[in-house]
Design brief:
Blueprint: H1 6-53, H2 66-75, E1 81-87, E2 90-91, H3 103-110, E3 115-121, E4 124-136, E5 142-154, H4 156-206, H5 221-279, H6 284-315, E6 323-326, H7 327-337, E7 344-347, E8 353-356, H8 358-375, E9 380-386, E10 390-396, H9 430-440, E11 444-449, E12 455-462
Helix pairs in contact: 1-4, 4-5, 5-6, 6-9, 7-8, 8-9
């Protein structure tokens, strides 16, 4: 069951509070009124019975028969009260059924007490009052005569009054509930409107709309929250603009410097080629220096080319030149062009075609296989698999693998393999460029450690890459 929203919880809490309060007040009033009604009726009946019993003194016959018992019962009977008189098994001819009198009441009356009890008799609430009759001796002492008088008074009118009170209590509760829901709805609307506006502005801010603001109404706590949000959003917008400007300047600087370096690097590369050719004929120290200059020139050229490629991704101008290609043949061409055919074990099923940019896929594969050969241990393998919508290329080695702390960072820019491998070469941009090329194809490149050792890079590409611009570099 989904959790209740804030509006529903506020409505429920407000309504529950109002209903509980109304129920407590109405219930207390109902109980008090019920007790007052019954107590007044009971006191009046007891007083009336006492007054009527005084009229039968003195007793003419201390051992009355049914006729005398009938006269005693008649003395305490009126329009609302029925009475019965008992004397050691004898009873008055008229009156209510003595079966309604409980044994507990009989014992109390036999003991000389005037007592009463409310019971339900044949579906009707009645009040039974029992009293013993006393005999006054000549010396003014009293003793029990053995005569017991019981009256039964219907409490049906009082019960109807009590039922009406209960109905009124229920009515008040229902009206209170309806009023509570209305008031709660009005109250929650006033409370939740600024909350909803804050939520909307926060969502827009999270989606990148840094100009999102919320209206401020009043001067309460919610208004303070809204003002704080607006101030925070304005400050965030200012900082993001500054960071974007700085990032754009940095990217432009890298791109400009990289492009400016291409011309002198081309000249240096030509000189490096000459030095390579002449290195064998130079003295030993000069030959080593010439080869070192040639190698570092190549490394610098590679770094500049990587920076130019990264700047294209950052500026959003990188585009795909899509062609329908045989993926297995593309992998073989990549290995053959770099002389890796004998060093790499390839599992390439035939007939797997896809619409891809062959140059960019070649860059990805060359980087992954080159890293595996340089930093891993043999055997290095490339495995191709496919389903109707995706192709998967797995490149793995059988070396020690990558440290778990390094795995999340291997695709970071300038994160060099020396943090996890025994040896490290290159600029640290190769894997970053490889992942950008994979994402440009709407695919992805991931890495993990194989269960039996070694790093496992997995390249997943769609077999039909969308190219809405249809452009090529």
């Amino acid at each position: 069951m989904p959790p209740l929203g804030l509006r529903a919880r506020l409505l429920f809490t407000f309504a529950l509070l109002c209903v509980v309060t109304a129920a407590a007040v109405a219930g207390g009033m109902y109980v008090q009124a019920r007790n007052d009604i019954l107590q007044r009726t009971q006191d009046a009946a007891v007083q009336s019975m006492r007054s009527r019993l005084e009229t039968v003194f003195p007793l003419r016959n201390p051992e009355p028969g049914p006729a005398e018992l009938g006269e005693i019962a008649s003395a305490v009977t009126d329009r609302n009260v029925s009475a019965v008189a008992l004397y050691y098994g004898e009873r008055s001819p008229a009156g209510f059924d003595p079966m309604a009198i409980s044994e507990e009441l009989r014992r109390a009356v036999s003991g000389g007490q005037l007592v009463w009890q409310r019971i339900m008799w044949r579906g009707v609430p009645i009040l039974i009052i029992g009293a013993p009759l006393l005999i006054v001796e000549p010396d003014d002492t009293t003793r029990l005569s053995g005569i017991e008088v019981y009256t039964a008074r219907s409490l049906d009118p009082e019960q109807r009054s009590i039922d009406r009170l209960a109905a009124w209590a229920w009515s008040i509760g229902l009206v209170t509930l309806a009023l509570a829901v209305v008031l709660a709805s009005v109250a929650t609307r006033g409370v939740l409107r600024p909350v909803r506006e804050l939520g909307r502005a926060a969502r827009l801010l999270g989606q990148g709309d840094l100009r999102a603001r919320t209206a401020v109404h009043g001067s309460d706590e919610l208004a303070d929250v809204a003002r704080t949000f607006n101030d925070t959003a304005a400050e965030l917008e200012r900082h993001v603009k500054q960071l974007r400007a700085m990032e754009a300047d940095a990217r432009r600087f890298v791109a400009d410097v990289s492009h400016e370096l291409r011309t002198p690097l081309a000249a240096l590369a030509a000189v490096a080629d000459v030095l390579d050719e002449e290195a064998a004929g130079l003295p030993e120290h000069a030959g080593r220096a010439a080869r070192l200059v040639s190698q570092e020139t190549l490394n610098l050229t590679e770094l500049v080319n990587d920076l130019i490629e990264i700047s294209r991704f950052d500026s959003g101008v990188a585009a795909l030149a899509l062609n329908e290609i045989d993926v297995a043949e593309l992998v073989r061409a990549t290995l053959r062009a770099r002389g890796w055919t004998e060093s790499v074990r390839a599992e390439l099923p035939a007939g797997v075609t896809a619409r891809l940019d062959p140059r960019r896929v070649d860059v990805i594969l060359a980087n992954l296989v080159g890293n595996a050969l340089r930093h891993g241990e043999p055997p290095v393998s490339v495995r191709l698999s496919a389903d109707p919508h995706w192709i998967t290329l797995e490149v793995r080695d059988h070396g020690p693998g990558l440290d778990e702390a390094v795995l999340p960072h291997v695709f970071d820019r300038f994160y060099k393999a020396s943090a996890a491998r025994a040896r490290s070469e290159g600029s640290g941009l190769g894997l970053a460029i490889a992942r950008e090329n994979a994402r440009l194809h709407q695919g992805d490149l991931t890495v993990t450690n194989a269960p039996d050792g070694g790093a496992l890079f997995t390249l997943r590409l769609p077999r039909r890459t969308d190219d809405p611009e249809g452009g090529a570099e």
